[in-house]
Amino acid sequence: MILKAFMNFMSRRTIFAPVRNKVINKYTSDEYVKGIREEAETERKEESKSHIVIYFHKVDDPYSALTIEYVDKIASVFNIVIKPVLVGEENPETVHEPTLYSEYCLTDVNRIADYYGVSFSSKNYPEKSLVHIANSILAAVDESEFISTARLVSKALWNNEKKALEELSIKFTADHDLVIKKLNQGNTIRNEKGYYFGSAFYYGKELYWGVDRIHYLEARLNELGLRKGSTNDPVCILNLKAPGKFECEEKVNFYYYPSLNSPYTFVSAKGVKELSDNYPINLITKPVLPMLMRKMTIPSHKVRYILSDAAREGVKKNNPIGNVYSPIGKPARKAYSIFPIIDEAGKGFEYINELLQASFYNGINIGEDDYLKSTVEKLGLDWNIISKKLGTNDWKKVLDDNLKDMYSGNCWGVPSFKITDANDENPFYVWGQDRMWLLKEEIYRRINS
Questions:
Q1: Tens digits of residue pLDDT in 88-99
Q2: In angstroms, what is the C-alpha Rg of the chain?
Q3: In what order do the strands lie in the sheet with 428-431?
Q4: What total of structural domains would you count in the chain?
Q5: 152 and 296, same structural domain?
Q6: Strand, coil or helix: 207
Q7: The pTM is what?
Q8: How many whole angstroms separate alpha carbon 352 and alpha carbon 339?
Q9: How far, in Å, CA of 350 to CA of 379, rounded?
Q10: What secondary structure does DSSP assign to 54-80, as a single string?
Q11: Residue 273 pLDDT > 50
Q12: Do 265 and 409 have their domain in common?
């Protein structure tokens, strides 16, 4: 416990930067991905195993309610064996703001379900008594019937259909001890595979969370030549209405909440710039402190997943992570200290974007005075004026206010976003760089309604 607390403390110190940088660069590298894939395939062949895809299902996880609708489709398209695993509560270490997390997840699934062709309209989490019945059914069901039964259970559970669940439980039911045993076994498997939530797939040492990452699993299975038919139609695709470019005199306010130590924020920056160029928005940048500098801790297995996932997202969005120099600690504080005056000069987003490029692609220490000076001058600003704020504390209240605003929308992680009407009313908060498509949909809907 003492060692863990010490390591958590040190992870936020500037002195820890070399180790932190080494870890980040390892898990975001192409070589790492290629290496684990080659290792996994070699082990599979040596052990003469089938191509096994594990699916983690949590009955009261709204994302699992979406993902379960696609599991059979994946199995029907590829020569694989699906191994379903029933899981229970997440490790508390991995959920930093449990209340905000729960509220946001349910809101998010209600928003995106229709785009994925799934019917979901539950405004509340299911009652604990119904969750117990659902787990009792799936703890008793045979593996070969798990997916089809889980789809029925999911629909009944989220629609609050107690009678439907009770009818299923006549055929499938496990006592309390067996349910606990199954959930514990599932959580153990999930932990061993380096994950922490439900609605995720695991194949060959890689994880794919929810409907948002099914296309990565598809791509990998395609590379292995496992597709059954000749068609290459995607298993999971979004049904979108918003165009790639949209011009209109009317604009909405678009708030962007980045942090300087987030690989997902780096990945998002290019998309934000493109949105600003192609959509009628007033871009307002409101940076917040990195989670580590907010005294939050992130377990090592979650760090590994975040880094590897952000890396593949960066490649997909043509904004790959390169050489990384983590700015946690003094570098971030110095860089943030001149943000307010730069933002007042109308260069807030451009400045944050430059810092992210330096930290996550060029491997530059953004806390060096020479770097900050050259960046300010690159933005066309006077360093003699800007540098007067270097190392001052005015920025702390600005970032604290930004964080409070972000939290008011049930968003705690970065990047987060907010859309409002031009008069700053009707806020629409979104968390995550993989929801840029949803932001476009909302802007398009809002202006065209």
A1: 998 888 898 999
A2: 23
A3: 281-285, 252-257, 416-420, 428-431
A4: 2
A5: no
A6: strand
A7: 0.94
A8: 8
A9: 8
A10: EEEE-TT-HHHHHHHHHHHHHHHHBS-
A11: yes
A12: yes
